[in-house]
C-alpha cells in the first residue's frame, strides 16, 4: 500500500483517496433526496467504523500491548464480515427510502474520484486523465452506459479479478436485471469493497538490486544476508521514537513466532537516527522482541535502501534484490499476504 508522510504519521493514499471521493460525492449529491443521501453516508461510515474498531475485538492482546496500533490496523476479514452484518441490518430497516438511481450516480462519482486521486499519487498521469474525463461525463449527463464504461476501464487497468472490477460487474447486473435481491446484494458488496481496496498489497513492478546487508546485531554477532539460506527475507527499518513503529511491533513479533518455511525476518534499527542504545534495549524489552535486530550505526544501509520515512518494510529474494516495499506500519496479516503473493520464490 502506498503512503504519504506527514511528520511522524504515514497516511495510506487509498484512505485519503476514498475520503476525498466520499466528500466530493456528498457535495455533488446534496440536491438529491435528503433521506437517501443521509442513508448513503450512514452506510459508508458505519461500515468503516465497525471494520476499523473490530480490531480491538479480534486483536485484543496486540491492542493492549500497543493501543496506538488502532490508528494503523483494522479487523481484517473478520472485520469485513462483522461490518456486513451491521449493514444488512441497516438496509433491512431502511429499505423503503432507498432511491437506486441516486445510489448508482453516487457510486459512479466515488469510483471516478478514487481512481483519479490514486493514479495521480502513483504518477500514472495518462490513466488519471482518462478517469477525469469519465468524471466529467458522469457530471454532464449520467447514463447507465457510463457504468459499463467504468467496468471496462477497471478491467483493463486492474484485471477482471480485482475487487473493484468485480463489484462494478455486480453493479451492472443490478442495473440491467433490476431485481430487488440483486440490488441489496450489490450495495452490500460495494461497501465491503471499501475496506478491501484500502488494504490490498500493491503489485511489484520490478526487482531492485541492493548491496548485501552486513551489520552487527544487538547480541554482538555479525549478520550477513549473503550467508543466509532463506529464500525470502523481510527487512523492517525502524527507530524506537517512531509511533507507527511501536504500533506494528506486536504484529512483527507474532509473525516472527510463526515464520513460514524459507522466510526470515530481521529488523534494522536506524541507530544513527535514533535515541541511543538504552532506548533500543527498553524498546526490545517492552515488545519482547526475539527476532534479529541489526544496528545500522552509520546509516549506510538505510541510505542504500533509500529509507526516507519509517517504518519501511522491504522484501528481498535470496540474491538480495528488492521485490516489494511497504512504507508505513504493517500487520501480521499483510506480511502473510505478502509472502503468499511471492510464494513462487519459496518453491524454487
TrEMBL record:
Q: What is this protein called?
A: Thiol-disulfide isomerase
Organism domain of life = Bacteria
**UniProt keyword Glycosyltransferase, yes or no:** no
Sequence ranges assigned to domain Thioredoxin in this UniProt record: 204-344
Any single GO molecular-function term of the entry would be: oxidoreductase activity
**Which sequence ranges are marked TM in the entry?**
6-27, 39-58, 70-92, 124-139, 151-176, 182-199
Record bears the keyword Cell inner membrane: no
What CDD domains does this protein's entry cite? TlpA_like_family
Q: Write the record's keywords in alphabetical order, separated by commas.
A: Disulfide bond, Isomerase, Membrane, Transmembrane, Transmembrane helix
Q: Which Pfam families match?
A: AhpC-TSA (PF00578)
Identify the PROSITE patterns for this entry: THIOREDOXIN_1, THIOREDOXIN_2
Amino acid at each position: 500500500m502506498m503512503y504519504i508522510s506527514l511528520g511522524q504519521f504515514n497516511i495510506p493514499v487509498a484512505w485519503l483517496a476514498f475520503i476525498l471521493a466520499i466528500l466530493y460525492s456528498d457535495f455533488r449529491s446534496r440536491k438529491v433526496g435528503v433521506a437517501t443521501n443521509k442513508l448513503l453516508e450512514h452506510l459508508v461510515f458505519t461500515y468503516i467504523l465497525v471494520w476499523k474498531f473490530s480490531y480491538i475485538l479480534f486483536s485484543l492482546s496486540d491492542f493492549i500491548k500497543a493501543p496506538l496500533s488502532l490508528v494503523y490496523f483494522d479487523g481484517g476479514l473478520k472485520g469485513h464480515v462483522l461490518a456486513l452484518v451491521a449493514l444488512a441490518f441497516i438496509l433491512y430497516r431502511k429499505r423503503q427510502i432507498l432511491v437506486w438511481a441516486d445510489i448508482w450516480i453516487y457510486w459512479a462519482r466515488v469510483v471516478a474520484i478514487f481512481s483519479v486521486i490514486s493514479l495521480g499519487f502513483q504518477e500514472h498521469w495518462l490513466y488519471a486523465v482518462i478517469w477525469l474525463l469519465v468524471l466529467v461525463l458522469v457530471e454532464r449527463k449520467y447514463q447507465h452506459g457510463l457504468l459499463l464504461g467504468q467496468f471496462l476501464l477497471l478491467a483493463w487497468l486492474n484485471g477482471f479479478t480485482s475487487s473493484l472490477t468485480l463489484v462494478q460487474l455486480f453493479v451492472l447486473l443490478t442495473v440491467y436485471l433490476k431485481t430487488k435481491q440483486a440490488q441489496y446484494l450489490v450495495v452490500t458488496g460495494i461497501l465491503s469493497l471499501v475496506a478491501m481496496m484500502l488494504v490490498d498489497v500493491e503489485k511489484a513492478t520490478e526487482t531492485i538490486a541492493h548491496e548485501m546487508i552486513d551489520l552487527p546485531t544487538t547480541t554482538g554477532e555479525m549478520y550477513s544476508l549473503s550467508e543466509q539460506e532463506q529464500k525470502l527475507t523481510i527487512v523492517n527499518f525502524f527507530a524506537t521514537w517512531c509511533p507507527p513503529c511501536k504500533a506494528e511491533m506486536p504484529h512483527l513479533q507474532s509473525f516472527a513466532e510463526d515464520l513460514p518455511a524459507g522466510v526470515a525476518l530481521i529488523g534494522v534499527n536506524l541507530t544513527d537516527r535514533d535515541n541511543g542504545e538504552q532506548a533500543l534495549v527498553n524498546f526490545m524489552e517492552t515488545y519482547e522482541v526475539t527476532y534479529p535486530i541489526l544496528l545500522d550505526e552509520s546509516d549506510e544501509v538505510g541510505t542504500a535502501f533509500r529509507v526516507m520515512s519509517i517504518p519501511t518494510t522491504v522484501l528481498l529474494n535470496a540474491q538480495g534484490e528488492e521485490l516489494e516495499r511497504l512504507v508505513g506500519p504493517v500487520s501480521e496479516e499483510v506480511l502473510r499476504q505478502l509472502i503468499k503473493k511471492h510464494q513462487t520464490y519459496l518453491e524454487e
